[in-house]
Amino acid sequence: MEKGGGACAASGSYPQKNAEILSSQYGINLFLAGLLLTFAWAVHAVGISKSHLLSYLITLMLIQLLWMLWYLCRSCTQRRLIRDKDTHAGARWLKCGITLFAVITLILDAFKIGYYIDFSNCLSPTEGIFPVTHAVHTILQVYFLWCHAKDMIQSFKTLERFGVIHSVFTNLLLWTNGVLTESKHQLNEHKERLITLGFGNISIVLDDHAPQCNCTTTTLCSVFSQGIYYLYPFNIEYHILASTMLYVLWKNIGRKVEHHQQHKTPFKFHGITVGMIFGLIVLISTIAIVVVYLIQIGRSKIKSELALTMFYLHAIFVLILMCTAGIVALLIYRLEDRLLDNSKNPARKLDAELLVGTAAGSWLLSWGSILAIICAQAHPKYTWYNLPYSVLVIIEKYIQNLFIIESIHREQEKVNDNIKTLRIVTISQGSTLSFTPKEIYNGRAACDNGEVPCLFKSSICGRDDGGNGAKEESSQENSLVMHPASDFSFYGRNSVTNNKRRILKNIAAFLFLCNLSLWIPPAFGCRPEYDNGLEEIVFGFEPWIIVVNLAMPFSIFYRMHSAASLFEVNCKT
């Protein structure tokens, strides 16, 4: 019977494995077709226009909308059924984050609609249809993720696999489209900045696919065109977050719930004051540096060099602090003896893979800068600051990845909230009477031989052992019962553990704010990899720009993803 059951289980899982492979291949082909279409539009391929790309994206979004509506309707009809949920997926703070990015994305869509209305004489109708479709898609997708991100789908599994993977790669293509559009805008500004730094020998024709007609209202056109590019970083983060949440949903299809899943601990500000203060100082100073950088860069050669020097010195200081904090956290982990949680967890596995995979983007840029500094014949003064900066970026990500990955794999301390220490103190005939602290389990005292102390308001009731209890009480009157050495040892160990936890929570809070701080500069156009010019001289303008455009989105995403992971580490510690 046992063998027969195993054979049935194996035969049942075989079609599901095939469905997983088929759906993943469908998604990859969908993505590659869209990627080539995007590339063809970017390089002005013959016969490929922006309307073709937008038509493809609109079609994908409409298909996803139909699937989500079908899934929501089916869930509505089965709402009374008890469904398995993955407690690790779709955390509330993650849903709040994606909602914030989605709201800003809707503002971006409104700007695009206004931009289309102003240039409607020479723009394709698809450029007006796209933002409308995208806005509807955003609203429904956020609602879907709020309600169903934790689902472990057990019915219509083959169909659902295709629907979810379609949604994953649709969001990845929308992310790619946003990255490309934002990068083209950055390139135009980059060319002007290089000229002010004295790299006039670099020549390349840049094109931003601007409309070939006049705007109906010049002021509004300027507001819409400039505002769009400041909102793109949020749109980019929205789509990458949505694709990761949907990917976890896809991995959970057909998966059975594990009964030992841990419950999420809520985030608390208590005990992380030091980390928050230092982190906020870094955040505020970073915002100030970015503002000054964007004002000064490109104004003149001297101002541009000062802006780059200021950026590098600030970043070096922050990265040194982050490296130090990460090393301290890892040393604390080495002093602790706690098991790692190796249970199956798609969300945790994806977090670890994304940390290492996206860190490779900034590692590539850092090694490019290091090689450029070594190989360049001439070195302006400000470029020497790029060397320690690039080395520290590599080291900091290495240390931080170790800390985060170990943190999310460590088993939570089994601390029972119902376990409390009861100290019984009373005043009897002017003297203090103290009993040995007892640990109360689930509201009841756990004492040897059934001796259970009770506490009513401010008085003590005797033990439930008849006359012996009265004799013992009278014999202890006017005397102080000394605590055993084992109790002090217990409190000492507990105090050390609490101190370690407090340090780790402060480090996680500090690194969380530092990662948010380091996300801001590249997301809003403060990119020294573009602006210092040394890499373009060594590698050539076009090759280096291609490397930066490929690696920068991963570098930006790494910081936001690290911040999200560190928030979870803080809650878990």
From TrEMBL:
<feature type="transmembrane region" description="Helical">
    <location>
        <begin position="503"/>
        <end position="525"/>
    </location>
</feature>
<keyword id="KW-0813">Transport</keyword>
<protein>
    <submittedName>
        <fullName>OTOP1 protein</fullName>
    </submittedName>
</protein>
<keyword id="KW-1133">Transmembrane helix</keyword>
<feature type="transmembrane region" description="Helical">
    <location>
        <begin position="129"/>
        <end position="146"/>
    </location>
</feature>
<feature type="transmembrane region" description="Helical">
    <location>
        <begin position="354"/>
        <end position="379"/>
    </location>
</feature>
<keyword id="KW-1003">Cell membrane</keyword>
<dbReference type="GO" id="GO:0005886">
    <property type="term" value="C:plasma membrane"/>
</dbReference>
<dbReference type="GO" id="GO:0015252">
    <property type="term" value="F:proton channel activity"/>
</dbReference>
<keyword id="KW-0407">Ion channel</keyword>
<feature type="transmembrane region" description="Helical">
    <location>
        <begin position="53"/>
        <end position="72"/>
    </location>
</feature>
<comment type="similarity">
    <text>Belongs to the otopetrin family.</text>
</comment>
<dbReference type="InterPro" id="IPR004878">
    <property type="entry name" value="Otopetrin"/>
</dbReference>
<keyword id="KW-0375">Hydrogen ion transport</keyword>
<feature type="transmembrane region" description="Helical">
    <location>
        <begin position="229"/>
        <end position="250"/>
    </location>
</feature>
<feature type="transmembrane region" description="Helical">
    <location>
        <begin position="271"/>
        <end position="295"/>
    </location>
</feature>
<keyword id="KW-0472">Membrane</keyword>
<keyword id="KW-0812">Transmembrane</keyword>
<feature type="transmembrane region" description="Helical">
    <location>
        <begin position="26"/>
        <end position="47"/>
    </location>
</feature>
<dbReference type="Pfam" id="PF03189">
    <property type="entry name" value="Otopetrin"/>
</dbReference>
<feature type="transmembrane region" description="Helical">
    <location>
        <begin position="93"/>
        <end position="117"/>
    </location>
</feature>
<feature type="transmembrane region" description="Helical">
    <location>
        <begin position="311"/>
        <end position="333"/>
    </location>
</feature>
<keyword id="KW-0406">Ion transport</keyword>
<feature type="transmembrane region" description="Helical">
    <location>
        <begin position="537"/>
        <end position="558"/>
    </location>
</feature>
<dbReference type="GO" id="GO:0042472">
    <property type="term" value="P:inner ear morphogenesis"/>
</dbReference>
